[in-house]
């Protein structure tokens, strides 16, 4: 199960900078995680200031 970003995302970009496999990119309304690329390391969830990332 990949990690997912909820609509609580404020598009700060911290998670994208943290991801070791560059699975996170800026989408239309918020940042999004590519489920096929994510290796479930959890770094992004620990980094998010508004706790918008959880394991899907
Ligand atoms: S869990 Fe790890 S690999 Fe997956 S999106 Fe977050 S930082 Fe990237
Ligand atoms: S760290 Fe959280 S608030 Fe910032 S872009 Fe990522 S999901 Fe959005």
Q: In terms of topology, how is this protein built?
A:
Blueprint: E1 3-5, H1 14-18, E2 24-26, E3 31-33, H2 43-47, E4 53-55
One iron/sulfur cluster binds next to helix 1.
Characteristic key phrases:
single chain, 56 residues, alpha+beta, Alpha-Beta Plaits, two-stranded antiparallel ribbon, two-stranded antiparallel sheet, 2 helices, 4 strands, binds iron/sulfur cluster
Walk me through the structure:
The structure is a single chain. This protein is of the alpha+beta class and 56 residues long. It has one domain (3-55): Alpha-Beta Plaits (2-Layer Sandwich). It is built from two helices and four strands. It has a two-stranded antiparallel sheet with strand order 1-4. Strands 2-3 form a two-stranded antiparallel ribbon. A hairpin with a 4-residue loop joins strand 2 (24-26) and strand 3. The longest helix has 5 residues, at 14-18. The N and C termini lie close together (6 Å). The protein binds iron/sulfur cluster (2 copies). One iron/sulfur cluster binds at residues 5, 9-15, 31, 47-48, 50, 52-53.
Which structural class best describes the helix and strand composition? alpha+beta
* Ligands bound, unique: iron/sulfur cluster
DSSP, total strands: 4
Major beta sheet summary: 2 strands, antiparallel
What is the succession of H and E elements? EHEEHE
Q: Do you know the CATH architecture?
A: 2-Layer Sandwich
DSSP strand content: 15-25%
Q: What's the helix count?
A: 2
Question: Which overall shape is indicated by the principal axes computed on the Cα atoms?
Answer: globular
Provide mean pLDDT, rounded: 97
End-to-end C-alpha gap: 6 Å
- Poorly predicted sequence stretches spanning 5 or more consecutive residues: none
CATH class category label:
Alpha Beta
Q: Classify the helix fraction into a percent range.
A: 10-25%
Give the strand order, joined by hyphens, for the main sheet.
Answer: 1-4
Number of domains: 1
Q: How is the CATH topology named?
A: Alpha-Beta Plaits
């Amino acid at each position: 199960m990949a990690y997912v970003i909820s609509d609580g995302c404020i598009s700060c970009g911290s998670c994208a900078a943290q991801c070791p496999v560059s699975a996170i990119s800026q989408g239309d309304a918020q940042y999004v995680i590519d489920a096929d690329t994510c290796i479930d390391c959890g770094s992004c969830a620990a980094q998010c200031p508004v706790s918008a990332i959880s394991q899907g």
